[in-house]
Amino acid sequence: MNKILQELGNNIRAERNRLNMSQAELAEKVGVSLPHISKIESGLSDIKFTTLIAILKALNIPFEKLYEL
Questions:
Q1: Mean of the pLDDT values across residues 46-60?
Q2: Domain range for residue 43?
Q3: CB contact at 8 A, 23 and 41
Q4: What is the 3-state secondary structure (H, E, C) of 22-45?
């Protein structure tokens, strides 16, 4: 498993949980499927830049904060 993708997924999950948001809610806001969000958070899916930006907007966090978590 790619360490960068795993760290990114862990940080997305942590921020989503901090907001008390379900994976289904995040998937709906981003416009992707629930299994895709699950794979991203597990570090099993290489995330497209446009999807990452949509996730950041849905979680209302700047790009830099994703690596501070």
A1: 94
A2: 3-67
A3: yes
A4: CHHHHHHHHCCCHHHHHHHHCCCC
DSSP reduced 3-state for 67 = helix
Distance separating alpha carbons of residues 66 and 69, to the nearest angstrom: 6
Could you tell me the CATH number of the domain that includes residue 31? Answer: 1.10.260.40
Q: Residue 40: what pLDDT?
A: 96
Number of domains in the chain: 1
- Return d(Cα 64, Cα 25) in angstroms, integer: 23
Q: Within 13 A of 64's CA, how many CA atoms are on the CB side?
A: 0
pLDDT at 50: 95
- Counting Cα atoms < 13 Å in the Cβ hemisphere of 3 gives 0
